[in-house]
Amino acid sequence: MLHPAHRESFLDGGEPVALSRLTYTTPDGWSAPLFHLPPRAGGAGEPVVLAHALGLGPDAYRYGGGPTLVSRLCRAGFSVYLLTHRGDRAAVGGPVAAADFDSILGLDVPAALRTIREHSGYARAHWVGHGLGGQLGLVAAGRDPSALASVSAIGAPVRFPRFASEWRARALALRLLPPGWRIPLRSLAEWAAPLTGEPGLAVSAARARGLMTYGAEDLPIALVRQVLRWMREGRLVSRDGSVDWTASLASGRAPLRLIVGEADPLWAPAFAEAAADLWQGPSVVQRLAGWTHLDAVVAEDAGETVHGPLVDWLVGHRRLAWGQAWAHHSLQAAI
Predict the structure, then answer these.
(1) Which of 57, 94, 149, 174 qualifies as a FRET site for 317, CA 20 to 30 Å off?
(2) In angstroms, what is the C-alpha Rg of the chain?
């Protein structure tokens, strides 16, 4: 293990600097921070929410020695809000057992968006989500077509291959654990970081170690159990299986951008792109040959391949955040 004095040369950058935060509170008593980065001087400040994936924290979007998605958005004049929710260690309030997709979607996301509207002065926010964060944005916009100005989902499947026997065994094993437990992924990742060599992806060993040290997040058992249920049923469903969240995407009207890694070992492109088949609004799919699940967010060359085109696309749709009620003619004028 390297001496702590050598950490900066061992990792691709040091610990991300502290950010200003807003706090939102949910109807059931949870509170969680929104980490805020203002736009460049003179920028209009349309709000963009960045929602992280399962197992990652909000700092994954801004970690690294070079330009990040966060810095590109700020330079383009957007006001950036890094979402945390009851599944994250920064949240406080109710029992951890309540930290599942349904509660985050139905309680945390509306409360966070309300706080962002009040802080930014804009009627709607643009949503960029990776994995779980993308799924939250897709379903939120499907449930309420006027909730978001646009949705960009990176590696966020809404249908899944069905692995009934294998995933049922894993789900049964998880049921033996207390529902309020968290899998300590953050501590495990930080411990394992010094052992990490070249990962064989578009991410260098230095960046991989840095993300493990600063970007990992613990996993609430309740949320993991729900993801396992999705694997069994082949679609996004509520905690008890009574609501098909995937079906709600048929009401989606906001402009949609899907970013899919063709070598993603977690979600085959066809399952990620199923959202575009259901979506009623305009959509575009960017397929990345040879890219995996994390590459589009954290790879060193993601800037020009993924982040630049994504920011340009958001610039083209930025006025959908402005203050008019959602209407078909205004949407068509912006695309």
Answers:
(1) 57
(2) 19
Rounded CA-CA distance 326/312 in Å is 22
Cβ contact 273:267 at 8 Å:
no
DSSP code of 43? -
Length of the chain: 335
Pairing type for strands 79-83 and 47-51 reads parallel
Q: Is 84 helix (H, G, I), strand (E, B) or coil?
A: coil
- Residue 160 near residue 235 (C-beta atoms within 8 A): yes
* Residue entry with tokens 């950058």: 13
Task: Tell me the CATH class for 4-334.
Answer: alpha beta
Write down the pTM of the prediction: 0.85
Condensed to tens digits (0 to 9), the pLDDT of residues 14-39 reads 556 668 999 999 999 999 999 999 99
Please check whether residue 49 is in contact with residue 86, taking contact to mean a CB–CB distance below 8 angstroms.
no
Angstrom distance (rounded) from CA 183 to CA 181: 7
Element housing 34 (H / E): strand 31-37
What is the tens place of the pLDDT at every residue in 276-306? 999 999 999 999 998 888 888 877 788 899 9
The DSSP symbol for 236 reads: -
The domain segmentation of the chain, as residue ranges, is 4-334
Question: Which DSSP string corresponds to 293-312?
Answer: TTHHHH-TTHIIIIIHHHHH
Task: Read off the tokens for 28.
Answer: 């059931």
